[in-house]
Amino acid sequence: MKKIYLMVLAICMMAGTLNAQKAYIRLGVGGGVGLKQYEGTTWADETHTSTTDNFVIKSMGLGSGFNANLAFGFMLSNYVGIELGVNEFIGLGNKIHSSSTTSGFDLSSDSKLSGMMLQIVPAIIITPGLEKVNPYARLGMSVGILPSVVMNDNSTTTGGESLKATSSSETTIKLSGGIALGFTAAGGIDFNLSERLTFFGEFVFNGITYAPAKGKFTKCIIDEVDKLPTLTTRDKEWTFEKKYDTDELIPEGSPDKKPKMSVNFSNVELNIGIKFKL
User: Mean pLDDT over all residues of the chain?
Assistant: First the structure.
């Protein structure tokens, strides 16, 4: 009798465990505000005249933008789960304007810096397991694959000894290569609409920076003439290096070398979406 009782108790416990082991798919969208990043006067609005030179430093942080996310999760119990997510981030970009007015020379330039990144996010879910309204926390790491940063610049100059009366240029630079590593932390609430459908809302903090491995010009138009085909590899491509010799003579057929740099994709997001329990 005692053995039968123990077997029934074990089966009930297993059944309860299996009932708690629920898989789900999560679909969401949202937007984020990026954290600041300042790099001296390299990214700033500038107004230059013959008597003044004024700078307004702007943030180079690229975390402001929109995202769409897809995740597969599995609840190991009512209180703990694991999740593997894919997040596509598309940045809004940052803009600066520069102008210079001196004797016989005028310059006006507009630049925009933007980034995008596909993130793989493995995470752990912690929740009290409430039935109707269930808060949760999600902690994990973020691996940015296929990241890229694009910088567009349009400028117009008037006057100057070596320039025509008016000269214009349009350039686009793309930075790519490498991966980005960071972490993510979220706090949210599940609203259980039915046995299988849940609506969620969450705040997410993502801490992630990206150091590109290489860069190149993808557009170089001077006075409406495409100069890109005539540029040497050294003039239009480069790699970012932690250590290199500034006196090194690089052949025209090889990429140039520039010092390593990083850009900040960290942000705070608000996401909403739905979960389908499988």
Answer: 89
Kindly tell me the burial class for residue 62, based on how many C-beta atoms sit within 10 Å of its own C-beta (0-12, 13-18, 19 or more). buried
**What are the Cα distances from residue 46, in Å, to 95, 137, 152, 173?**
12, 44, 17, 21
Which two three-digit tokens encode residue 16?
């309860």
C-alpha to C-alpha distance for 138 and 202, rounded to whole angstroms: 10
Question: How buried is residue 87: exposed, middle or buried, by Cβ count under 10 Å (0-12/13-18/19+)?
Answer: buried
Least confident of 104-113, 134-143, 224-233, 253-262: 104-113
Residue whose entry in the numeric block shows the structure tokens 């969450």: 202
Query: What are the distances in angstroms from CA 213 to CA 150, 177, 209, 237, 241?
Result: 14, 5, 13, 11, 8
Q: Report the 10 Å Cβ neighbour count for 116.
A: 19
Full-model pTM? 0.84
Identify the H or E element spanning 11.
helix 2-20
d(CA 56, CA 43): 9
Per-residue pLDDT band at 15 (split at 50, 70, 90): very low
CA 179, CA 262: separation in Å to the nearest integer? 12
Domains of the chain listed by start with CATH number:
23-147+177-212+266-277 (2.40.160.20)
